[in-house]
């Protein structure tokens, strides 16, 4: 069971946008795809969906290759929020198209949501407010009955109330229907509690894949000021830098241990303080680690 | 529901209003044309009767002192002079230029509408086969359009037979059938041109210009090599002309249908391999740039040079062909490659060399 | 119960201590039904798997009990059921903390005040 992206690479023109991407997603899991703007998140989604034709790689859904059986794509939902045909249709018409494309489409569920969230049925999609559009997109995604759902920036530009509603639908779908959700967002704070895993995409590769709760129990973010100007080598080797300002260094130890703590104490630091670890820190750390290795080249 | 049924529904939901519009347009134009033809024939009938014509010709003959008697005047010549010899002009007027343009437009629409309104994104993300969608869509749009045209043509002929005196309109059934086949084959080929250009070329304006440019040159091409009257394969003044020049109508029908099948097959292949990231200039498929440039250069050079506009010498034809080819190459290069990209590449290279 | 986004503790640990705190304060009482995993996830806009992990830990610690098809309940706390090992562990942590604060110059009565305050107002 599961949804797997295997060895996906994509070039646009002569430029490598994605290189050897491997991602897996199981039912009931929420995976966050994070990366800076223009790093290829949307390109990845479009390649998965089949809008782009990747140069290499394929998708495995429940242990079967999509290339061999195209109808497997009924198990996958992806909505391109920038490029879709919705504008000139009413939401019920849009739902009609999706009902034809997904045999598992649950009309009753769809109707209930439309009533619950008071989505206007006679109005064309383009006349919807941004919040209503965002809400409808989520309603549509989880009405199709597709076990694997890809959401590209689903919270972007939504107000607090709508965001709350979107969260509720996602949590319901995951806990009740065991949907697997791959979600991208640049708002790391919002993703922080929602996702099981965070996959960091940088410079066309995946640079990290964190299981957040495990990482939180293993990793430590600490603020250090050492007496010497040099940062001790064991710190450099075992941690990723989040920020360095003068002699104040904030580092992330991915595998923190009592020995490491003892080693730090032995250096007799002027400041040794543990700080709360957020998704943003993990993101910064994995990105800065990559940059430093690139610098070495 | 089976995949087929679901796909039929999708295509129908998406295109029903457009198909209704196409049908209404065809019926409207066809009816207007039929009424116009009948009226003009009736007017001519009033002014010019056969008796009047005989008298006039005799007096002309007398004036020019040529012994040309009415008895020698054959009926066919009379019809030819009147311009309504066998009814084919009645059909020819209605069903040539306007519908030619219309059918190309429908072909372009079939490809471009889904591309530009981002419906392709939906289809490509779904579990449906792209090829199957392509054939269903093309089938539904083209078959209903063509069927309407055929029905209108038959109605047109029927009305003409009913309201126009047989002095002016009399054609054999076999001729009509042949002509109908000729139109169907021709329209199918033209539709295929619109469809494939709409898939290969990015941008509504670029695609439209390309389709019409290709079609225009193609008509010259078929005019020259599949010869028939006036260089227009859709206008046959008489059976006489068809017999005299170029391949016979049945052969032309076969050629059109083969061309149409090849183009539609290619269109389905390209649609199946279309990647939507290419917002590139002019072409949707980068690897087609070079072949297209070569093809266009040879094709235009060959047509203009080899068309034989009064050139009797081979050397003259080659000269014209080469000059046209060179001009075509330059223009096509600019259109296909967009020189600012090349200019940027040159700049990048020189700046790389410096560093 | 509050989940602190800026705490360095994993969310499921926060959830565990939060529920324990609620039980201790009497907000949750024996045989009270706690929100389902889904409801709890929605209340805190949190990943359901995280909630489920916390519940599992609490069940293993005999704090909660799940009755199939009915829901999750607060289990009766029995004095004799006290997990002495766990208590010892926490006690060591507490004593270490006290050592640390006294080292930092905090006086004994100050620590007493903190503890008093906590039990009176529930401020941490």
Automatic annotation (TrEMBL), chain A:
Pfam families: ABC_tran. SUPFAM superfamilies: P-loop containing nucleoside triphosphate hydrolases. The keyword DNA repair does not apply. Coiled coil: none annotated. Residues 3-228 form the ABC transporter domain. InterPro entries: AAA+_ATPase, ABC_transporter-like_ATP-bd, ABC_Transporter_VariousFunc, P-loop_NTPase. Keywords: ATP-binding, Nucleotide-binding, Transport. GO terms for molecular function: ATP binding; ATP hydrolysis activity. This is ABC-type multidrug transport system, ATPase component. It comes from Dellaglioa algida DSM 15638.
UniProtKB/TrEMBL annotation, chain B:
The keyword Protein biosynthesis does not apply. InterPro entries: ABC-5_transporter (IPR053046). The chain crosses the membrane at residues 15-38, 94-115, 140-164, 184-205, 212-230, 250-271, 292-311, 317-336. The keyword Transmembrane applies. Keywords: Membrane, Transmembrane, Transmembrane helix. PANTHER family: ABC TRANSPORTER PERMEASE YTRC-RELATED. This is ABC transporter permease.
UniProtKB/TrEMBL annotation, chain C:
Residues 9-77 form the HTH gntR-type domain. It comes from the Bacteria. PROSITE patterns: HTH_GNTR. Keywords: DNA-binding, Transcription, Transcription regulation. CDD domains: WHTH_GntR. The keyword Transferase does not apply. One of its GO terms (molecular function) is DNA-binding transcription factor activity. Pfam families: GntR. The keyword Chaperone does not apply. This is HTH gntR-type domain-containing protein.
């Amino acid at each position: 069971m599961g949804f797997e992206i295997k060895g996906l690479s994509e070039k646009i023109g002569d430029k490598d946008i994605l290189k050897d991407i491997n991602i897996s997603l199981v039912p009931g899991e929420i995976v966050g795809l994070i990366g800076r703007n223009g790093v290829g998140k949307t390109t990845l989604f479009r390649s998965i969906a089949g809008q782009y034709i990747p140069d290499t790689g394929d998708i495995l859904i429940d242990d079967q290759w999509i290339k061999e059986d195209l109808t497997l794509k009924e198990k996958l939902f992806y909505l391109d929020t920038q490029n879709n045909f919705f504008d000139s249709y009413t939401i019920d018409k849009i739902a009609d198209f999706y009902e034809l494309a997904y045999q598992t489409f649950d009309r009753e569920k769809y109707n209930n949501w439309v009533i619950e969230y008071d989505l206007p049925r006679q109005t064309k999609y383009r006349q919807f407010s941004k919040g209503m559009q965002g809400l409808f997109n989520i309603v549509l995604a989880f009405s199709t009955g597709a076990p694997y759902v890809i959401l590209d920036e689903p919270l972007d530009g939504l107000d607090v109330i709508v965001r709350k509603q979107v969260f509720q639908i996602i949590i319901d779908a995951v806990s009740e229907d065991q949907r697997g959700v791959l979600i991208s967002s640049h708002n790391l704070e919002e993703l922080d509690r929602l996702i099981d895993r965070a996959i960091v995409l940088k410079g066309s590769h995946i640079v990290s894949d964190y299981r957040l709760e495990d990482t939180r129990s293993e990793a430590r973010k600490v603020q250090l000021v050492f007496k010497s100007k040099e940062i001790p080598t064991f710190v450099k080797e075992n941690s990723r830098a989040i920020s360095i300002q003068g002699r104040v260094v904030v580092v992330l130890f991915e595998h923190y241990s009592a020995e490491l703590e003892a080693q730090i104490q032995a250096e007799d630091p002027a400041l040794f303080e543990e700080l709360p670890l957020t998704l943003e820190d993990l993101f910064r750390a994995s990105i800065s680690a990559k940059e430093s290795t690139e610098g070495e080249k | 529901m089976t995949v087929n049924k679901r796909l039929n529904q999708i295509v129908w939901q998406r295109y029903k209003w457009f198909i209704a519009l196409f049908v209404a347009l065809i019926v409207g134009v066809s009816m207007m044309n039929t009424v116009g033809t009948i009226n003009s024939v009736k007017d001519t009938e009033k002014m010019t009767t056969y008796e009047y014509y005989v008298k006039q010709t005799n007096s002309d003959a007398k004036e020019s002192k040529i012994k040309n008697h009415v008895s020698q005047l054959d009926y066919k010549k009379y019809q030819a002079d009147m311009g309504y010899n066998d009814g084919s002009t009645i059909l020819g007027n209605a069903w040539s230029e306007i519908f030619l343009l219309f059918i190309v437009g429908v072909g372009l629409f079939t490809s471009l509408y889904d591309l530009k309104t981002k419906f392709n994104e939906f289809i490509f993300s779904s579990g449906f086969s792209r090829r199957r969608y392509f054939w269903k869509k093309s089938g539904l749009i083209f078959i209903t359009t063509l069927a309407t045209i055929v029905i209108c043509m038959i109605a047109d002929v029927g009305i003409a037979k009913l309201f126009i005196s047989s002095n002016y309109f009399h054609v054999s059934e076999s001729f009509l059938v042949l002509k109908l086949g000729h139109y169907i084959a021709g329209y199918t080929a033209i539709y295929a041109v619109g469809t494939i250009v709409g898939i290969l070329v990015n941008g509504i304006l670029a695609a439209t210009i390309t389709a019409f440019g290709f079609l225009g040159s193609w008509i010259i091409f078929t005019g020259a090599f599949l010869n028939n009257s006036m260089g227009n394969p859709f206008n046959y003044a008489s059976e006489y002309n068809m017999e005299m020049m170029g391949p016979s109508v049945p052969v032309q029908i076969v050629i059109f249908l083969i061309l149409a099948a090849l183009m539609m097959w290619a269109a389905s292949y390209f649609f199946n391999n279309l990647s939507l990231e290419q917002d590139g200039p002019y072409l949707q498929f980068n690897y087609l740039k070079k072949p297209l440039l070569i093809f266009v250069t040879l094709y235009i050079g060959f047509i203009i040079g080899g068309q034989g506009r009064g050139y009797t010498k081979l050397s003259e034809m080659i000269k014209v062909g080469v000059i046209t080819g060179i001009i075509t190459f330059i223009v096509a290069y600019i259109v296909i490659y967009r020189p600012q990209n090349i200019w940027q590449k040159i700049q990048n290279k020189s700046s790389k060399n410096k560093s | 119960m509050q989940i602190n986004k800026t705490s360095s503790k994993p969310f499921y640990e926060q959830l565990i201590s939060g529920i324990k705190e609620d039980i201790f304060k009497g907000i949750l009482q024996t045989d009270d039904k706690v929100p389902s995993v889904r409801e709890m996830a929605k209340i805190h806009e949190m990943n359901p798997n995280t909630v489920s992990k916390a519940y599992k830990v609490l069940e293993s610690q005999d704090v909660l009990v799940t009755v199939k098809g009915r829901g999750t309940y607060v289990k009766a706390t029995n004095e004799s059921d006290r997990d002495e090992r766990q208590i010892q562990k926490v006690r060591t942590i507490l004593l270490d903390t006290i050592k640390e604060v006294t080292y930092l110059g905090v006086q004994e009565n100050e620590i007493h005040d903190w503890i008093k305050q906590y039990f009176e107002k529930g401020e941490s």
